[in-house]
């Protein structure tokens, strides 16, 4: 309700010293929700329990590696077991994780979320419960087809002729080829240490088997681009990006480790009282007893709350007064652009900002397809009531918009009539992101609850084709054996 979201001006007038923030996350499957919860709990772990280096390395491996070290796998099991016990008990969750709210999720979604955590915690014993290495290789074979025997040449071509040309020159051939072959992007220890399947990458689907819908578990994530582009191609410290004889001095993995460590360092400093950070003035005030209670170091965990929304709620949020004209910032990933509609735009506050991730680093898209994708994003944003952000620096990675109050900008032509994009395909379908054949999945031991993790949208709904150009003839596809899902 409205009382949960007080006006920021009221907080300032009351002199609380804290500007409370609410973050709302809308995902297309509960496995992604579970991964968010795990990553946030890792980032907000007490420094006394886990050091900065260990936390950074654990994040990189859980987030970007198909195989884990035993120590990291043990952390995932322990944390998943804790979250599995907290999900069905809101009171305990509010006490131990005050920054997290699952109140908006449906009961069946919470049950399915608990089942995901129990699988991560080792409810199904043995590596065969999720044979990641075999699943990865089968996905790769399906993606490359007849090119599988020349996979090293294909990975080198994708890296040098696509990712490097699009601004990711710091990714080294060795690390990219290793990730394409094994799924291990960040090798922080000896290669033999990585042998435990990363269960957090598992996802469930309903597949047809002999005329029946069967719940199956497999890996349908990225096997084309890699996780390097998120934290590994830019850095504030420009010395990390220098080259020698035309070759980068640092790898994308090393840059990722630096950026993630600095990020977690800021989170840790933000979460501690100023005196604990070594502020001399604050220490003197505390020693003399003159420090004001409300400013003596409120923990960051109390200054924000992350709410997870129901999986199918994008088109209905504007019906609730607590969401309408509420959000100051909307961020939309490139694989969720089909949700960008007038209904979602109605949730943005006047003058609010919209940031849309573009498909720059999807290696199976041609330059002209990237341009058409960007144009289509602009059309959808205009139909949702947004105008291009004035003064924004041109970017091929993100499109930035601002909520417009001009009703004329909300009028839509035939191509933008309902805000639901046409189904024509702009991009070649990426096998790297598609559900493979039945032999790439593991049947679930027992029927899963009828929840969203096993009721994902169809391939066409998950693909970039939902937001792409209105003319199929104008976007003739190349001869590619790939399909798309981000």
Short description, anyone?
This protein has 486 residues and is an alpha/beta fold. Helices cover 34% and strands 13% of the residues.
**Cα shape:** globular
Tell me the domain tally.
Answer: 2
Number of strands: 14
**Widest sheet: strand order?**
10-11-13-12
- Which percent range describes the beta-strand content? 5-15%
Order of helices and strands: HEHHEHHEHHHHEEEHEEHHEEHEHEEEH
Mean pLDDT: 79
Q: Helix- and strand-based class?
A: alpha/beta
The major beta sheet can be summarized as: 4 strands, mixed
For the record, give the distance between the C-alpha atoms at the N and C termini, rounded to a whole number.
Answer: 33 Å
- Poorly predicted regions are 1-18, 273-287, 289-301, 407-439, 445-463, 466-486
What is the rounded Rg?
23 Å
What is the number of helical segments per DSSP (H or I, 4+ residues)? 15
Helix content bin: 25-40%
How is this fold's topology laid out?
Blueprint: H1 8-13, E1 21-25, H2 30-43, H3 52-64, E2 67-68, H4 70-86, H5 90-96, E3 100-101, H6 107-120, H7 132-144, H8 151-163, H9 173-182, E4 196-197, E5 203-209, E6 212-218, H10 228-231, E7 243-244, E8 247-248, H11 252-270, H12 280-288, E9 304-308, E10 327-332, H13 342-345, E11 348-357, H14 367-383, E12 386-388, E13 398-403, E14 441-443, H15 459-462
Parallel strand pairs: 1-9, 3-9, 10-11
Antiparallel strand pairs: 2-4, 5-6, 6-14, 7-8, 11-13, 12-13
